[in-house]
Amino acid sequence: MNKLVHKFYIGFFIVVTISVLVLLIINGYSYYTSPFEERFFYLTTIH
What we know:
Layout: H1 3-33, H2 42-45
């Protein structure tokens, strides 16, 4: 693998990692901004 192909290869994985991180932040933001009592597993965590 020459240096140019290797740079594209590494760059591709960086873009994928950042994209997944952004999607997780966007999709999970509402969970962490909701009140604790309204979160999905609230009743199963209190014992």
